[in-house]
Amino acid sequence: MSIQFIDLKAQYQHLKADIDARIHAVLDHGQYIMGPEVSELETRLAEFVGVKHAIGVCDGTAALQVALMALGVGPGDEVITTPFTFIATGEMVALLGAKPVFVDIDPVSYNLDPAKLEAAITPRTRAIMPVSLYGQCADFDAINAIAAKHGLPVIEDGAQSFGASYHGKRSGSLSTIGCTSFFPSKPLGCYGDGGACFTNDDAPAKKMREIRLHGQDRRYHHPAIGINGRLDTIQAAVLLAKLPSFPQEVEARSRIGARYSALLGDVARVPVVGEGQGHVYAQFTIEVDNRDAVQAKLKEAGVPTAVHYPIPLHLQPAFAALGLGEGSFPVAEAAGKRVMSLPMHPFLG
Description:
With 349 residues, this protein is α/β, with parallel strands linked by helices. The protein is 35% helix and 13% strand.
């Protein structure tokens, strides 16, 4: 018997009537770009996260770009982030002509280590962009304190942590701007690409709304350079259908993650959930010895696995110009050799 790494079909069958009705409503009214479902979703997302503003965008990568642009990040600037993440995090910094400055990770949470953060701040630092990896928020109390001391904004890359909690608040509400992804495999996913930015600050909210519409503040009037970063109406409709049951899915993920940890704690290093935190397990990631052999055995047994992420960003060819070789970030490099993700979705038996 083979099991699904992420079972979107089971979720669809569970929510089929609501999803179909939402999609057909869009087909009936025909407003495929910036239709009414987009603003409705933004209202619901803002309420869920607990912020004043939610801005729907075309994907999680664009969410980071829009946030960075709204804060004025550009050539000559530096943005501090983690090397242990999907390439989009560093990629958007570089795309804007800025320099990603990496800080090694905490070996327990895999998130940016606040103890190493302050040493990376220079006069060129324009923002700090921690990642809430695997579905658990970074240490925002410590990160925000350091950022405030230096007068720096913080962007949460919460592409994997939508629905996670941190001392009574939700991912997306923990920093100057929060960003997330609605890629189909994320905790809350649509049926294509999608994303959102969150903030309580009116000024960056206004800028982000304009940037995602080619820098437009009204039709054919462009105060700034922007991008085509709109969220499709049909994707907004899918998310609206999924959102009401999402809290129950978060609970299921937490329950399944706890059971995994109880059963595997003696044979692998399992996730550690921080005090006062709620993990959404976008990936259930363990550490093992002899990873290749373990993956091969699991594959024989019909259990799919994945590695998030085998090569840290500083060792990627795209960032070779930074001159950061092997040994620059030993914790991230060690994790890349040992981590392995197991099937995780709310419908696991």
